[in-house]
Design goal:
This protein is an all-alpha fold and 192 residues long. The protein contains ten helices and no strands.
Length: 192
Protein backbone atom coordinates (compact mmCIF):
# COMPACT_ATOMS: atom_id res chain seq x y z
CA UNK A 1 0.00 0.00 0.00
CA UNK A 2 2.87 2.34 0.87
CA UNK A 3 4.54 1.78 -2.51
CA UNK A 4 1.22 2.45 -4.23
CA UNK A 5 0.78 5.68 -2.31
CA UNK A 6 4.30 6.78 -3.26
CA UNK A 7 3.50 6.01 -6.89
CA UNK A 8 0.24 7.96 -6.56
CA UNK A 9 2.08 10.96 -5.16
CA UNK A 10 4.55 10.91 -8.07
CA UNK A 11 1.79 10.58 -10.67
CA UNK A 12 -0.26 13.32 -9.03
CA UNK A 13 2.72 15.69 -9.12
CA UNK A 14 2.94 15.13 -12.88
CA UNK A 15 -0.79 15.81 -13.35
CA UNK A 16 -1.47 12.48 -15.08
CA UNK A 17 -5.08 11.83 -14.09
CA UNK A 18 -5.46 8.61 -16.12
CA UNK A 19 -2.58 6.98 -14.24
CA UNK A 20 -3.80 8.51 -11.00
CA UNK A 21 -7.07 6.66 -11.49
CA UNK A 22 -5.20 3.38 -12.08
CA UNK A 23 -3.04 3.95 -9.00
CA UNK A 24 -6.08 4.69 -6.85
CA UNK A 25 -7.78 1.52 -8.07
CA UNK A 26 -4.69 -0.59 -7.26
CA UNK A 27 -4.36 1.04 -3.84
CA UNK A 28 -8.04 0.37 -3.19
CA UNK A 29 -7.58 -3.27 -4.20
CA UNK A 30 -4.61 -3.58 -1.82
CA UNK A 31 -6.57 -1.93 0.96
CA UNK A 32 -9.45 -4.33 0.36
CA UNK A 33 -7.13 -7.30 0.83
CA UNK A 34 -5.70 -5.63 3.96
CA UNK A 35 -9.28 -5.38 5.34
CA UNK A 36 -9.17 -1.59 5.29
CA UNK A 37 -12.57 -1.28 3.67
CA UNK A 38 -13.29 2.39 4.35
CA UNK A 39 -10.01 3.45 2.73
CA UNK A 40 -10.46 0.94 -0.08
CA UNK A 41 -13.94 2.23 -0.87
CA UNK A 42 -12.76 5.85 -0.90
CA UNK A 43 -9.81 5.10 -3.20
CA UNK A 44 -11.87 3.06 -5.63
CA UNK A 45 -14.72 5.58 -5.74
CA UNK A 46 -12.21 8.36 -6.51
CA UNK A 47 -10.68 6.15 -9.21
CA UNK A 48 -14.08 5.57 -10.80
CA UNK A 49 -14.89 9.27 -10.60
CA UNK A 50 -11.74 10.00 -12.62
CA UNK A 51 -12.67 7.25 -15.08
CA UNK A 52 -15.76 9.20 -16.10
CA UNK A 53 -13.31 11.21 -18.23
CA UNK A 54 -10.99 8.40 -19.38
CA UNK A 55 -13.33 5.42 -19.70
CA UNK A 56 -10.66 2.73 -19.15
CA UNK A 57 -12.90 -0.35 -19.06
CA UNK A 58 -10.37 -2.48 -17.19
CA UNK A 59 -10.09 0.05 -14.34
CA UNK A 60 -13.88 0.47 -14.31
CA UNK A 61 -14.30 -3.30 -14.20
CA UNK A 62 -11.79 -3.81 -11.38
CA UNK A 63 -13.18 -0.90 -9.39
CA UNK A 64 -16.75 -2.12 -9.58
CA UNK A 65 -15.63 -5.69 -8.81
CA UNK A 66 -14.00 -4.60 -5.58
CA UNK A 67 -16.89 -2.33 -4.56
CA UNK A 68 -19.18 -5.33 -5.12
CA UNK A 69 -16.83 -7.56 -3.09
CA UNK A 70 -16.97 -5.19 -0.11
CA UNK A 71 -20.76 -5.35 -0.07
CA UNK A 72 -20.82 -9.07 -0.84
CA UNK A 73 -18.50 -9.80 2.09
CA UNK A 74 -21.01 -8.25 4.52
CA UNK A 75 -23.92 -10.03 2.78
CA UNK A 76 -25.44 -6.87 1.30
CA UNK A 77 -26.30 -8.78 -1.85
CA UNK A 78 -28.94 -6.43 -3.25
CA UNK A 79 -26.50 -3.52 -2.95
CA UNK A 80 -23.62 -5.53 -4.44
CA UNK A 81 -25.56 -6.65 -7.53
CA UNK A 82 -25.32 -3.42 -9.58
CA UNK A 83 -21.56 -3.22 -8.98
CA UNK A 84 -21.10 -6.80 -10.15
CA UNK A 85 -23.17 -6.00 -13.27
CA UNK A 86 -21.14 -2.87 -14.07
CA UNK A 87 -17.85 -4.65 -13.42
CA UNK A 88 -18.75 -7.63 -15.60
CA UNK A 89 -20.04 -5.37 -18.36
CA UNK A 90 -16.80 -3.37 -18.38
CA UNK A 91 -14.49 -6.40 -18.13
CA UNK A 92 -16.30 -8.08 -21.03
CA UNK A 93 -14.90 -5.28 -23.22
CA UNK A 94 -11.29 -6.07 -22.21
CA UNK A 95 -8.88 -9.00 -22.40
CA UNK A 96 -9.02 -9.43 -18.60
CA UNK A 97 -10.81 -12.69 -17.97
CA UNK A 98 -9.89 -14.01 -14.50
CA UNK A 99 -11.55 -11.16 -12.58
CA UNK A 100 -14.52 -11.35 -14.93
CA UNK A 101 -14.83 -15.08 -14.22
CA UNK A 102 -14.52 -14.48 -10.48
CA UNK A 103 -17.14 -11.72 -10.64
CA UNK A 104 -19.48 -13.97 -12.58
CA UNK A 105 -18.96 -16.80 -10.07
CA UNK A 106 -19.65 -14.55 -7.06
CA UNK A 107 -22.53 -12.80 -8.79
CA UNK A 108 -23.94 -16.23 -9.61
CA UNK A 109 -23.78 -17.15 -5.92
CA UNK A 110 -25.40 -13.85 -4.99
CA UNK A 111 -28.25 -14.55 -7.43
CA UNK A 112 -28.51 -18.12 -6.10
CA UNK A 113 -28.92 -16.68 -2.59
CA UNK A 114 -31.70 -14.45 -3.91
CA UNK A 115 -33.38 -17.45 -5.63
CA UNK A 116 -32.88 -15.93 -9.09
CA UNK A 117 -32.17 -19.31 -10.64
CA UNK A 118 -32.01 -18.54 -14.36
CA UNK A 119 -29.76 -15.52 -13.86
CA UNK A 120 -27.58 -17.46 -11.43
CA UNK A 121 -27.24 -20.38 -13.86
CA UNK A 122 -26.21 -18.00 -16.65
CA UNK A 123 -23.48 -16.46 -14.49
CA UNK A 124 -22.15 -19.86 -13.37
CA UNK A 125 -22.14 -21.09 -16.97
CA UNK A 126 -20.12 -18.05 -18.09
CA UNK A 127 -17.74 -18.42 -15.13
CA UNK A 128 -17.17 -22.09 -15.98
CA UNK A 129 -16.37 -21.24 -19.60
CA UNK A 130 -13.90 -18.53 -18.55
CA UNK A 131 -12.24 -20.65 -15.85
CA UNK A 132 -11.86 -23.53 -18.34
CA UNK A 133 -10.04 -21.23 -20.77
CA UNK A 134 -7.72 -19.92 -18.07
CA UNK A 135 -7.01 -23.20 -16.28
CA UNK A 136 -8.13 -22.19 -12.82
CA UNK A 137 -9.16 -25.67 -11.74
CA UNK A 138 -10.08 -24.81 -8.14
CA UNK A 139 -12.42 -22.00 -9.15
CA UNK A 140 -13.77 -24.16 -11.96
CA UNK A 141 -14.55 -26.95 -9.48
CA UNK A 142 -16.21 -24.46 -7.13
CA UNK A 143 -18.32 -23.16 -10.02
CA UNK A 144 -19.51 -26.67 -10.87
CA UNK A 145 -20.26 -27.38 -7.18
CA UNK A 146 -22.38 -24.25 -6.76
CA UNK A 147 -24.13 -24.88 -10.08
CA UNK A 148 -24.98 -28.33 -8.69
CA UNK A 149 -26.37 -26.73 -5.53
CA UNK A 150 -28.46 -24.33 -7.58
CA UNK A 151 -29.91 -27.12 -9.71
CA UNK A 152 -30.62 -29.37 -6.71
CA UNK A 153 -31.78 -27.01 -3.98
CA UNK A 154 -33.39 -24.17 -5.93
CA UNK A 155 -34.45 -25.57 -9.28
CA UNK A 156 -35.22 -29.27 -8.61
CA UNK A 157 -33.25 -30.21 -11.74
CA UNK A 158 -31.78 -33.40 -10.37
CA UNK A 159 -30.09 -34.72 -13.54
CA UNK A 160 -28.43 -31.34 -14.12
CA UNK A 161 -27.33 -31.26 -10.47
CA UNK A 162 -25.72 -34.70 -10.76
CA UNK A 163 -23.92 -33.67 -13.95
CA UNK A 164 -22.55 -30.53 -12.31
CA UNK A 165 -21.54 -32.38 -9.13
CA UNK A 166 -19.76 -35.09 -11.18
CA UNK A 167 -17.79 -32.40 -13.01
CA UNK A 168 -16.90 -30.82 -9.67
CA UNK A 169 -15.69 -34.17 -8.30
CA UNK A 170 -13.33 -34.63 -11.25
CA UNK A 171 -11.93 -31.11 -10.89
CA UNK A 172 -11.57 -31.36 -7.10
CA UNK A 173 -9.75 -34.68 -7.42
CA UNK A 174 -7.41 -33.14 -10.01
CA UNK A 175 -6.44 -30.30 -7.64
CA UNK A 176 -6.10 -32.49 -4.55
CA UNK A 177 -9.21 -31.44 -2.64
CA UNK A 178 -10.69 -34.78 -1.53
CA UNK A 179 -12.95 -33.23 1.11
CA UNK A 180 -14.74 -31.14 -1.54
CA UNK A 181 -14.93 -34.16 -3.88
CA UNK A 182 -16.43 -36.19 -1.00
CA UNK A 183 -19.04 -33.49 -0.36
CA UNK A 184 -20.06 -33.50 -4.03
CA UNK A 185 -20.20 -37.31 -4.06
CA UNK A 186 -22.40 -37.21 -0.94
CA UNK A 187 -24.73 -34.81 -2.73
CA UNK A 188 -24.91 -37.16 -5.72
CA UNK A 189 -25.80 -39.98 -3.30
CA UNK A 190 -28.47 -37.83 -1.69
CA UNK A 191 -30.03 -37.07 -5.08
CA UNK A 192 -30.15 -40.76 -6.00
Amino acid sequence: IKAGKNWLQEITSKGDLAWKSKALCLIGKSQYYANSFVDAKAAIEKSLELQEEFNDQEVIGFGNHFLAMMLYDVEKYEEAAPYFKKGIQALTLTNERWTQATSRFLYGYLLYSLKKNDESRAQYTEAIALFEKHVDSKSLADSYKYLGQLEYFNADKFADAVTAYKSAVLKYEAVGRPEDAAYCNSMIGEIY
